[in-house]
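Per your request, structure below.
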C-alpha cells in the first residue's frame, strides 16, 4: 500500500516521461487503468507523440480511435494490416476523424485494411488539411474516395493505390486535376489500362507512376 501511494504521488510529467518508453499499446492501456494519475500520464505521453504506428499490433476500432484522439500533436498515422489481423473498420475511421490531430496529419497509411470502405475513408480525409502522403493500398475503395481526396487534400504529394481494383481512370484524372503537387502514384495491381497511364503522364509529365 505504501509503495502504491508513493507511485501515485509521482508528478504527471514524470509519469508521462516514463510511459514514453512503453512500446506496447496493451501495456499503455493497462497502465491507464491503474489509477487516475496514471491515466492522465498515459494521455500526456500520447499527446507528445508526432508519429503513431500500430504495425504488428492487434487493434480494434475502439482502442485505436481512443489512442488517436489522445495524440493531439500527431503528424504521421500508420495502421497497416498485421499478422494479428487488424480489425479496423469504417466505424473506427469515423471515430478517428473526430480527433483534434486529424487536421494536422501529413501522412496516413491504412495499407491492407480490407474492413474499410469509401464511407470511412471519405469521413477521415474530408477532415484532413495538411496531408502529403496517403497509402490505401490493398483496400476496396472506389473513385468516390478519390473524389473526396481530391477535394480535401490539395497538398497531396504521394498516393499508394496498390491493388485497389475498384478505382478507375475517372478518379485518377480528378486527382491529377485537383492535386497539383502530386509527385508519385503507385498503381500496381490495379485495372487501369495502359492508354490511361499515358494520358495521365501527358497531363502531368513529372508524375512518377509505379505499375
Amino acid at each position: 500500500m505504501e509503495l502504491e501511494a508513493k507511485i501515485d504521488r509521482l508528478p504527471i510529467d514524470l509519469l508521462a516521461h516514463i510511459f514514453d518508453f512503453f512500446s506496447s499499446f496493451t501495456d499503455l492501456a493497462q497502465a491507464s487503468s491503474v489509477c487516475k494519475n496514471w491515466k492522465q500520464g498515459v494521455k500526456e505521453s500520447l499527446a507528445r507523440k508526432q508519429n503513431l504506428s500500430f504495425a504488428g499490433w492487434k487493434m480494434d476500432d475502439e482502442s485505436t480511435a481512443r489512442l488517436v484522439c489522445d495524440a493531439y500533436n500527431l503528424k504521421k498515422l500508420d495502421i497497416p494490416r498485421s499478422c494479428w489481423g487488424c480489425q479496423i473498420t469504417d466505424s473506427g475511421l469515423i471515430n478517428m476523424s473526430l480527433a483534434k490531430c486529424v487536421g494536422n496529419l501529413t501522412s496516413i497509411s491504412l495499407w491492407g485494411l480490407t474492413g474499410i470502405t469509401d464511407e470511412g475513408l471519405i469521413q477521415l480525409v474530408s477532415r484532413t488539411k495538411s496531408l502529403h502522403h496517403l497509402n490505401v493500398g490493398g483496400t476496396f475503395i472506389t473513385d468516390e474516395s478519390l473524389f473526396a481526396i481530391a477535394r480535401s487534400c490539395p497538398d497531396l504529394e504521394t498516393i499508394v493505390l496498390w491493388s485497389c481494383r475498384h478505382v478507375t481512370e475517372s478518379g485518377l484524372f480528378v486527382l491529377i486535376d485537383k492535386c497539383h503537387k502530386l509527385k508519385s502514384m503507385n498503381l500496381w495491381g490495379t485495372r487501369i489500362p495502359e492508354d490511361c497511364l499515358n494520358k495521365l503522364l501527358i497531363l502531368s509529365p513529372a508524375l512518377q507512376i509505379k505499375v
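The radius of gyration is 20 Å.

Regards,
D.
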